[in-house]
Amino acid sequence: DLLWSGEPDLRTEDSRMNFVSCLKSVCMRIEVGTLPWLMTEDKDIPILRVAMAYTAHEEPLLRTQARSAMLTLLSKIKMGEGPLLRTALDMAKSRL
Fold this sequence. Notes:
Order of helices and strands: HHHHH
Largest sheet: none
Distance between the termini: 24 Å
Shape: globular
Structural class: mainly alpha
């Protein structure tokens, strides 16, 4: 939780690429049974919020990796519990 809610130093392109690559890797490795642990008490999913933030980035490769992370996470959330899915959909709607 602290990793995704903190403020990493992402001033360089390399650090942003490494961060989003790590984000994508974590999203691919998360198991459906552990999904409820992703949501905070205030109905936020920090890892999803961070992925969404990079889906409109100007760098195409970064944008593609972030979209892949987001879609992977959303597909796993879809298989998980209802409250998590509702929170994820609300987060997606607020970004439209």
